[in-house]
Write a structure and sequence with these properties.
By secondary structure, the protein is mostly beta strands. The protein has one helix spanning 70-77; strands at 9-10, 18-24, 36-42, 49-57, 60-68, 81-82. A two-stranded parallel sheet has the order 1-6. The chain has a two-stranded antiparallel ribbon with strand order 2-3.
Length: 86
Amino acid sequence: LASKINNKRFTKHSVEAGEHEFSTQFYGKKHKAKTLTSKVNVEAGKTHYVLLIVKVGFLTAKLHAVEITEASAQPWLGKIKEDKKY
């Protein structure tokens, strides 16, 4: 599953229960060797929220995916729009 997410947007995906690995990167659909990954254990019937955080360094930027709680996600969801073009 690949998804392009624009600024101030979110996407929804239905996946099977179990452990899923998220890879995040700037630009391109092909997996890059230095891609950062994080794992989320998805429970059946539960909504999980993953926040993408940009960490800027000297001449580089890295994109991290971090699972957050529903309470933490709610303020973000009020400020951004769903992007259905993934």
